[in-house]
């Protein structure tokens, strides 16, 4: 059954009509603010497109749903190559690329059986037919540390197609896309961080009992109550970097901060 999309609409005679919608998707609450001259009905159609896109991504890449395309890959790619949808192929390809670009700190195979830092090299993509295979048993790919950032870029595409230039998308307070300007100011201020056509992505532990990021160094959950936020122009890259920086040790983190000094990082 489809989740109820709730919304409020405040019309205006100028360009600042406000549309606020919220719903549950991808295991979190999604809040959407749109500033546009479009009608209430038109904006509701845009939000429905966003909701449908998030449901599609979850059906494709949810690690915990046995019916997802990703779960089928995890069960069968060691037995024989699996032809991927174009979108899932591009997602996995990007994640493999950024394993080396984050000094191994971002690793989508950390939930594999008998994991070690070489496990990711058991994942093989074929660009010719967009297939994937695993060269050892027990390998699994988990895109949970990447998917919300990718979702932000999918939403950006929908808003661009709808010619909506001013918007704020908040997925669970950890993955945020800010386009254009707030109706009464420049950019969008989130916890004293001003965003303008940027994404804010956050990774970390908010309590000693809520740990979920695995360290590629030892395959164990990262301890400690802390969070790392990254501001980037691309949500996918932001999600990768916030996850990688959180999983990194102090030496790796210092090196990554130097490599990606063009981005704002908050620890």
TrEMBL record:
InterPro entries: ApbE (IPR024932), ApbE-like_sf (IPR003374). SUPFAM superfamilies: ApbE-like (SSF143631). One of its GO terms (molecular function) is transferase activity. Keywords: FAD, Flavoprotein, Magnesium, Metal-binding, Transferase. It catalyses: L-threonyl-[protein] + FAD = FMN-L-threonyl-[protein] + AMP + H(+). Its EC number is 2.7.1.180. This is FAD:protein FMN transferase. It comes from Bacteroides vicugnae.
């Amino acid at each position: 059954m489809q989740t109820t999309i709730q919304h409020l609409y405040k019309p205006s005679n100028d360009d600042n009509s406000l549309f606020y919608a919220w719903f549950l998707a991808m295991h979190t609450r999604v809040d959407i603010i749109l500033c546009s001259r479009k009608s209430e009905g038109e904006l509701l159609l845009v939000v429905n497109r966003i909701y449908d896109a998030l449901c599609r991504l979850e059906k494709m890449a949810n690690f915990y749903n046995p019916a997802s395309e990703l779960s089928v890959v995890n069960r069968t790619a060691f037995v024989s190559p699996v032809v991927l949808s174009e979108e899932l192929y591009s997602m996995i390809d990007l994640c493999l690329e950024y394993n080396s670009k984050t000094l191994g700190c971002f690793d989508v195979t950390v939930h594999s059986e008998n994991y070690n830092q070489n496990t990711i090299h058991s994942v093989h993509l074929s660009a010719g037919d967009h297939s994937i295979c695993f060269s050892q048993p027990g390998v699994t790919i988990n895109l949970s540390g990447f998917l919300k950032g990718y979702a932000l870029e999918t939403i950006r595409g929908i808003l661009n197609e709808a010619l909506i230039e001013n918007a704020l998308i908040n997925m669970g307070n950890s993955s945020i896309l800010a386009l254009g300007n707030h109706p009464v100011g420049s950019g969008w201020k989130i916890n004293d961080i001003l965003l303008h056509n940027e994404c804010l992505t956050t990774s970390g532990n908010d309590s000693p009992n809520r740990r979920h990021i695995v360290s590629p160094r030892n395959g164990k959950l990262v301890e400690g109550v802390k969070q790392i936020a990254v501001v980037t122009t691309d949500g996918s890259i932001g999600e990768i970097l916030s996850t990688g920086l959180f999983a990194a040790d102090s030496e790796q983190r210092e090196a990554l901060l130097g490599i990606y000094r063009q981005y704002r990082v908050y620890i």
